[in-house]
Design a protein that fits this description.
single-stranded DNA binding; Structural maintenance of chromosomes protein 5-like; 1 helix; mainly alpha; rod-shaped; coiled coil
Length: 113
């Protein structure tokens, strides 16, 4: 009888231990979506912070680049102006060269006569 009581006692202990384990499993399964949500939310926040840092760095780099960009634009404008002046001068040189050639032809004709 004592042995039977001991066995029943062990059975009861195992039953309660099993019930505790099943309750723990149920509680953890219920908690799982919240844990997954919290993990994803943390990852989202980290990515958001990284994005904000990169955006800030890009903004700072653009601000530092503005003076150089303006200088490049100014130099490009100067280059275009110089190219236009070169074209005008090249046209003037051609016209002057043609006038010189015409005068030389006139002089050569006078010399032949």
């Amino acid at each position: 009888m004592i042995q039977r009581n001991e066995r029943y006692k062990q059975d009861v202990e195992r039953f309660y231990e099993r019930k505790r384990h099943l309750d723990l499993i149920e509680m953890l399964e219920a908690k799982r979506p919240w844990v997954e949500y919290e993990n994803v939310r943390q990852e989202y926040e980290e990515v958001k912070l990284a994005r904000d840092r990169v955006k800030d760095e890009v903004r700072k780099l653009k601000e530092r680049q503005i003076p150089m960009t303006r200088r490049i634009e100014d130099i490009e404008t100067q280059r275009h102006n110089l190219e236009a002046r070169i074209k005008v001068k090249a046209t003037d040189i051609k016209e002057t060269s043609q006038k010189c050639k015409q005068k030389q032809d006139i002089i050569e004709r006078k010399d032949k006569h």
